[in-house]
Amino acid sequence: MMRVYTENTPNENVLKFVCDETLTQGGVEFTKDSSATESPLAQVLLTIPFIQQVFITANFVAIEKIDGVSWDDVKDDLLEIVNEHLEEGIILYQQKKQPYTVYAEMTPNPAVMKFVANAPLVPEIIEIKDREKAAGVPLAVAIFKEYPFVKEIFLTENYVSLTKDDSEDWDLWTMDVRSFILNYLQAGGMVFEEFYEFKTEAPEEVVVKPREEFTDVEEQIKAILDEYVQPAVQNDGGNIELIEFDEETRTAKMLLQGACSGCPSSTATLKNGIEGLLKQMLPDVVNNVEAVNG
Fold first, then answer.
1. Which regions of 14-84 does DSSP assign to beta strands (E)?
2. What gap in Å lies between CA 145 and CA 132, rounded to an integer?
3. Consecutive H or E run containing 75
4. Could you read off the pLDDT of 194-243 as tens digits, one per residue?
5. Of the residues 8, 9, 77, 85, which has the maximum number of CB atoms within 10 A of its CB?
6. Contacts (Cβ under 8 Å, ≥6 apart) of 190
7. What would the mean pLDDT of 117-123 be, rounded to a whole number?
8. Tens of pLDDT, residues 167-177
9. DSSP annotation string for 213-279
10. CB 48, CB 101: distance < 8 Å
């Protein structure tokens, strides 16, 4: 009996294989360079030439393929492999818990502090703009309850960025918050619930175009952002996404998230950095860059 189904993600090269039981409370990532001894499934998958990475968390296995291979051609075979390992109970061996470490890191946005863990926390971006939308993310619920001055929470990969209001100063609270997050993770607290729906949060007036609907120019812009801009932006505790490209005005509209949203230096970064980069790499195509805060 098949106990696994597939689910698309915003990244067209990543497909989720969702299981009918929780696999792990944390998250484990495997690449071609990994020994993957704790996951017989990952060991098998990574021998397949077109598979680059395997991420196991909550109740699903996320598989990343290379370009040039269609999911339609391979997903049924992969589905069977994942299901067989689920039936045999050998997707992921339960290992002894490794102790978490968490450190605090300042961001260019003075209202935002970044707290970095030594292990993956989420497989995709979670952005919570107010406490009423924290359902399904127990870590966020706990932070909002403990710290009333926190007004926004942004999670991606192995860190959480917290945006405060003007009532408190990070100088007084950074170490306390760091200890709280560390103790929460060490106690086995769940970061997000099993059936949490990952989605891009944006202002109501903004519609983020799905990647599969991008034009050729938008694909080129997205590729440049992913390679040259995104690593630095993520390092600062934020995220930047292409909303759309207007060919008439030659304007690329960007969505800023996390520490980038509302950051005093973001406008200068867009104009002096990203806009200049796009003009250089796509001459006579992009003239302007506009930002929308998430």
1. 14-19, 24-31, 51-58, 60-65
2. 11
3. helix 71-88
4. 777 776 555 555 566 667 778 888 888 888 888 877 777 776 667 777 88
5. 85
6. 25, 138, 139
7. 88
8. 999 999 999 99
9. G--HHHHHHHHHIIIIIHHHHHHTTEEEEEEEEETTTTEEEEEEEETTTT-TTHHHIIIIIIHHHHH
10. no
